Amino acid sequence: MTARIGVTLNVNGRARRVRVPPMKRLLDVLREDCGLTGAKEGCGEGECGACTVLLNGDPVNACLVPAVHADGARIVTVEGLERRGKLAPLQRAFADLGAAQCGICTPGMLLTAVALLARSRGRVPGEEEVRTALAGNLCRCTGYQRIVDAVRAAAAPAARARRPARRRAAAKPKGRRR
Ligand code: FES
Ligand code: FES
Questions:
Q1: Is the pLDDT score of 138 beyond 60?
Q2: Which domains does the chain have, with CATH numbers?
Q3: What atom of ligand 1 comes closest to residue 40's alpha carbon?
Q4: From the CA of 135, how far away is ligand 1's center (Å)?
């Protein structure tokens, strides 16, 4: 019998302790041991991005990561994005703008986009910037434009909120003076 190794993960804010064979993939641990089936298996070779999760804030292909290498790490899967049963703004934008069709790529797209939006700190990333960030996530359905639009749309309210109040006031049309 193959020896098993204890691995502790923080998945979506919850501690999970599992005992796994040494080379069991993070993707399989999440799906089989944690019951989180949002991360999908497409190619199984690091090419499609369907299995993307965040590992300590960075997007990784969970099909390429042995779970033991993630010991002690913070993992976020698509199940961790919604709050109290409400979709996150990025998920809402995907739904509203038709950025998800068959849905196979969607969890990975969302998590890669979450990392991009975290890096852009309230700025709306440019179209090319979004396309470059999402280059490792393949979609066979949407033609990508709706996904790019959704990511930028989700960033827009945060960018507006960060705009200094003075600039917002200056941008308002002036009322008629008496
Ligand atoms: Fe992991 Fe395709 S299933 S990159
Ligand atoms: Fe089907 Fe992207 S929505 S692969």
A1: yes
A2: 5-80 (3.10.20.30), 89-165 (1.10.150.120)
A3: 3
A4: 13
